[in-house]
Amino acid sequence: MIYTIIGSMVIIISLAYIYYKPSAKVTKNIFNAEYYRGLNYLLNNEEDKAFKIFTALMDVDSSTIETHLALGGLYRKRGEFDKAILIHQNLLSRPTLEAELKNQALYELSKDFHSAGLYDRSEKIFRNLSEIKSYRQSCLEHLLKIYEVTKDWEKAIELVKSMDTITDNEKTLALLAQYYCEISSIYNKDNQIEKAIAISKKALKTNKNCIRANYQLAKYYSKNDIGISVQYYHSIIHQNKDFSKYIINKIIHTAKKIQNNNIILKTLMSISEIKEMPFIPDIYFFILYEKDKETAMKYINTFDRTDLVNNFVITHTLASTEDQTGLNGVIHDLVNSYKNIFSSNFYFICNNCGYKSNELNWKCPSCNTWETIVPKSAVDIIEEGKHSE
Ligand SMILES: [Zn+2]
Questions:
Q1: How confident is residue 34, by pLDDT bands cut at 50, 70 and 90?
Q2: Which DSSP string do the residues of 45-111 spell out, in sequence order?
Q3: CB of 355 within 8 A of CB of 349?
Q4: pLDDT over 90, % of the chain
Q5: Domain 1-150 homologous superfamily, CATH
Q6: Ligand 1 centroid vs 348 CA: distance in angstroms?
Q7: Are 179 and 153 in contact (CB under 8 A)?
Q8: Range from 23-37, 124-138, 298-312 carrying the lowest mean pLDDT
Q9: How far is the CA of 346 from the centre of ligand 1 (A)?
Q10: CB 173 within 8 A of CB 368
């Protein structure tokens, strides 16, 4: 482990040196005895001593500035923010530092502050540097990360709107929609439902593919207008079929709140007609209990029983509606274990990094991307196994 770290440090320093090397003159100066002594300390894991030498070297030899920029970055990567900040502040204290190097040192210092959680100080520097064209894009990206971490959605929105890419970039618009959804969710928690609805609609207008906006609207309307609520749920299934089982579960849950189930029945029937929709037990049961066995069987007969997974799910679904009193112990256990598979438990898995959790996050806590997490039932997992064979 130690050797890997040392190895990578040597490589990074060497590469950084080659990368930052501004002129041939530096080559002569930089490889002096002190520099080697410092490197030696670093190799022997005596970073404090190495740090002292490199700092001293920086004072006497202006050609080592680039190496120190790299060293500072290295300390930051290792989580030693104090040292990184010290190195970069030290660089900035030099009165003769030329403008480009000063900007570079400021940029690095701002990244140190960001990593150390000193967001105010980081934000200030990134804001100033973003005025310089060559720093603009990366500074704006850092600033967005700061506003996301500090949940300063108003500032995040203002920033995204100021970006040059805003008009034609789907990714930027998708991000903007997420920020509107965040604000909507704050209004909702504060019981300001009308404001929450208005801003979720704005999110959907900004990005018509925003699943979260539809989901929020479905939830808000479920309190007083089931018809509209169900329409928003319905839209989600058209946006992404991975959500169908989860959303159907929500629709049926909504149905329990009202007397007239016709609207739900109509919605479920129309969902079942969507192309390539798999057999969903919840739809069968709803039709069976809310309408009649004949219509429920019609639903089943629309499926190709040579499809193994569909056939497996259908067979089980039919078996579980039959009287189980005559079954012996083993079969009874089997039926019950199937019941667990078909229960409405969902896992939430990130399509981007594979992060798995028990709740639906709109921003992946692991890879920090928005709306990459989808609900999966146990049957979905069986199905994926089938396709990967
Ligand atoms: Zn992820």
A1: confident
A2: T-HHHHHHHHHHHHHH-GGGHHHHHHHHHHHHHTT-HHHHHHHHHHHHT-TT--HHHHHHHHHHHHH
A3: yes
A4: 40
A5: Tetratricopeptide repeat domain (1.25.40.10)
A6: 10
A7: yes
A8: 23-37
A9: 17
A10: no
65-77 and 2-20 helices cross at what angle (nearest 10)?
140
- Per DSSP, the residues of 106-130 read HHHHHHHHHHTT-HHHHHHHHHHHT
Looking at residue 277, the DSSP 8-state letter turns out to be: P
Residue 357, strand partner residues:
348
CA of 119 to the centre of ligand 1 (A): 24
Q: How far is CA 200 from the centre of its chain?
A: 19
Confidence band for 70, pLDDT divided at 50, 70 and 90: confident
pLDDT at 24 over 50: no
At 249-299, the pLDDT tens digits run 888 888 777 766 788 888 888 888 887 888 888 888 888 888 888 988 888
- Distance (angstroms) between ligand 1 centre and the Cα of 75 equals 27
Cα(366) to ligand 1 centroid in Å equals 5
The DSSP bridge partners found for residue 347 are: 376
Q: Which of 50, 114, 128, 62 is nearest to 91 (CA)?
A: 62
Q: Residue 372 Cα, ligand 1 centroid: separation in angstroms? A: 7
Structure confidence at residue 323 (pLDDT): 55
The pLDDT assigned to 98 comes to 85
**Residues 43, 48, 51, 57, Cα dihedral to 10°:** -100
User: Residue 364 C-alpha to ligand 1 middle, in angstroms?
Assistant: 5
| Domain boundaries, given as residue ranges, for the chain | 1-150, 153-221, 243-344, 347-387
Q: Residue 270: what pLDDT?
A: 85
